[in-house]
Each structure stands twice: as structure tokens, then as C-alpha cells.
TrEMBL record:
A Pfam family annotated for this UniProt entry: NADHdh
Coiled coil: none
Protein's cellular compartments: Cell membrane; Membrane
Full protein name: NADH-quinone oxidoreductase subunit H
Catalytic activity: a quinone + NADH + 5 H(+)(in) = a quinol + NAD(+) + 4 H(+)(out)
Organism from which the protein derives: Pedobacter chitinilyticus
Record-level GO cellular component terms: plasma membrane
């Protein structure tokens, strides 16, 4: 294996890890600013100009706080839970194609850590493992409220993963590929999958809200019933890991939606920009467009949180099993019929 290839991938991994943490950190700031705007308040404004240093102040506070482990908790699992949640959140970006291949000197560099032909299955596997961090943390705390929250989280994730998987099956009928790079490259220019799968995108987006435990599906963290949820007994950076994992999952979910349905790094007029900017800067411009789409989805996550009230738990489960799953199955059938008729004619 070439040493240049190893260095290239190492730099990309470190860059993705740093970007994920930075976006998660400043998502906390953006969330508070969005909430303040919607509620006609100022939000954080003390730490730095316009409160821009507030995430750093929060991070220092997390590091400096006393770390408390309950006397009756399972000590090792109590420590494993937040670490597993954080790990599963961070490794989801490995198969995302962040841009077209770019020229650096005389070397062609891929803006993707790894291109596996089952990238979508990898994403779903990582998402499925993430709930174990919540389950382990809730159970190891030896607190009945934390355990109830963990059970809610597991039930919610399992229920909505089914509808999410079914929505992806309809997308596979259209794209004929499980490779994220192949799916994104098929959406060249303005040929985005959302035009062919609007219902599939809507189902996937609702399930993404449920998978990331974001409002109005934040039942595992329902303060009125569960006193804070599965991380109630956590403090210091263990609590910080759980909170960071939620925001990184929101970032990854936004990335996957932008890649699968909104073209990823593709945009109208990209062939003209490729001729104008050249093989080095044109891919980076596409990556910037990709991040603009991601930030738009992150803003939508925040907007919904501060606009729509939380569902009751029976409403949550009813929507998943009686609403989204039948809709996703109907979407598969309709997509199959349309493809069969199109091929025949």
C-alpha cells in the first residue's frame, strides 16, 4: 500500500472527525440562537462577540465539572455507554462522498474515506448500533427512570428503522445501487432523487427525526415524565458525550438525506463551474454546496424542535407502525409499477 494513500486517508479521517466535533459544538450554539429568534429573545451573548465563544465555555464547564458515578451503578458499563454512543455517531461519515475526485498536484484525491459497494447497509448498521449506547447507559445507571427511557429509545428506534429501511428499498429500485458514491454521481446537475421519490424522502426524514431522538420524537428525554431520560445520572464529559452524539447524529442524518435525495455535491450548472474553476477548485466548490444543504437540514431540525409539540408515546408508536410502514410499503409498490411500465414502453 502506498504511503501517500495512507497519509491521504489519515488526513481525511482527522479532518472529518474535527469537522464533526466542530459542527456538533456549534450546533448547540445555533440551536440556542434559533430558539431565541423564534421566541423573540437574544440567546447567548456574553461569551465573545454575539456569544460566539459560548460552545467553548460550555465545553470547559463539562471538563471541569465533578464526575459522579452512582454507588449502585454498573461502573464499567456506565462508562462504556456514552463512549459507544459517541463512537457510533462519529464513524457514520466514513462512506459519505464529500465531493468529486480532485487534483492535488499530479495526484487524484478522492474526497471519501472509503467507497464500499454496500455503503447504505453500513450506514444502517451504524445507526442500529447507536441505540446500544443509550440502552447500556440507561440500564447501567440502576435508575428506574433511566431504564424506562432506554426502553423507550430502543422501541422507538426499532419501530422507525423498519419504515426507514422500506423507504430506502424504493430508492434502490430507482438507483440500482447500494454504493453512496454511485447514488450521488447519478444525481448529476439537477437530476436529484427527491423528484422521483418525494414520498420516500418524506418518510425517511420523519424517521430520521425519530432515530436521532429529536423533537417531536424526543420521548426518551421527556423531562416531564422521566426527569431527563437515559442520561439523568451522568455528569461531566460522560453527559457531554451523550449530548455531542445527538448533535453528530443530527449532522450525519442531514448528510445522508442531502446525499441520497438532494444530489450531495451536485448542483445546477456544475459542468460550467468545472470548466471555470478547474479540477482542483471545482470539487471543493461542490463540497461547499453539499455543506450548505447539510446546514439547511440542520436548521430544519432545530426549527421543528422549537415549533411542534412533543407526541405522546402511543401517538409515536401508532405513527410508526400504522402510518409510516404502510405508506413505505405502498411507495415500494407504486415505484415498482412505475418502473415496470416505463421499461415496457
Amino acid at each position: 500500500m502506498e504511503i501517500d494513500f495512507v497519509i491521504e486517508k489519515f488526513i481525511l479521517v482527522i479532518a472529518l472527525f474535527a469537522i464533526s466535533l466542530l459542527i456538533a459544538m456549534y450546533s448547540t450554539y445555533a440551536e440556542r440562537k434559533v430558539a431565541a429568534f423564534l421566541q423573540d429573545r437574544l440567546g447567548p451573548d456574553r461569551a465573545g462577540p454575539f456569544g460566539i465563544l459560548q460552545p467553548l465555555a460550555d465545553g470547559v464547564k463539562m471538563f471541569m465539572k465533578e464526575e459522579i458515578i452512582p454507588a449502585n451503578a454498573n461502573k464499567w458499563l456506565f462508562m462504556v455507554g456514552p463512549g459507544l454512543a459517541m463512537l457510533c455517531a462519529c464513524i457514520g461519515t466514513a462512506v459519505i462522498p464529500w465531493g468529486q475526485d480532485m487534483m492535488v498536484g499530479d495526484r487524484l484525491v478522492k474526497l471519501q474515506v472509503t467507497d464500499i459497494n454496500v455503503g447504505l447497509l453500513y450506514i444502517f448498521g451504524v445507526i442500529s448500533l447507536g441505540v446500544y449506547g443509550v440502552m447500556i447507559g440507561g440500564w447501567a445507571s440502576n435508575n428506574k427512570y433511566s431504564l424506562l427511557s432506554a426502553i423507550r429509545a430502543a422501541s422507538q428506534n426499532i419501530s422507525y428503522e423498519i419504515a426507514m429501511g422500506l423507504s430506502i428499498i424504493a430508492l434502490l429500485l430507482v438507483t440500482n445501487s447500494l454504493s453512496l458514491r454511485e447514488i450521488v454521481s447519478q444525481q448529476h446537475g439537477f437530476n436529484w432523487n427527491v423528484w422521483y421519490q418525494p414520498l420516500g424522502f418524506l418518510i425517511f426524514m420523519v424517521c430520521a427525526f425519530a432515530e436521532t431522538n429529536r423533537a417531536p420524537f424526543d420521548l426518551p428525554e421527556c423531562e416531564a415524565e422521566l426527569n431527563g431520560g437515559y442520561h439523568m445520572e451522568y455528569s461531566s464529559m460522560k453527559l457531554g458525550f451523550y449530548l455531542f452524539a445527538e448533535y453528530i447524529n443530527m449532522f450525519v442524518s442531514s448528510t445522508v438525506m442531502a446525499a441520497l435525495y438532494f444530489g450531495g455535491y451536485n448542483y445546477p450548472g456544475m459542468d460550467y463551474m468545472a470548466g471555470l474553476l478547474g479540477p482542483t477548485w471545482a470539487p471543493l466548490f461542490g463540497t461547499a454546496i453539499f455543506f450548505l444543504k447539510i446546514f439547511a437540514f440542520i436548521f430544519f431540525f432545530m426549527w421543528v424542535r422549537w415549533t411542534i409539540p412533543r407526541f405522546r408515546y402511543d401517538q409515536l408508536m401508532s405513527l410508526g407502525w400504522k402510518g409510516l410502514i404502510p405508506l413505505a410499503i405502498a411507495n415500494i409498490v407504486i415505484t415498482g409499477i412505475v418502473i415496470a411500465l416505463t421499461n415496457n414502453f
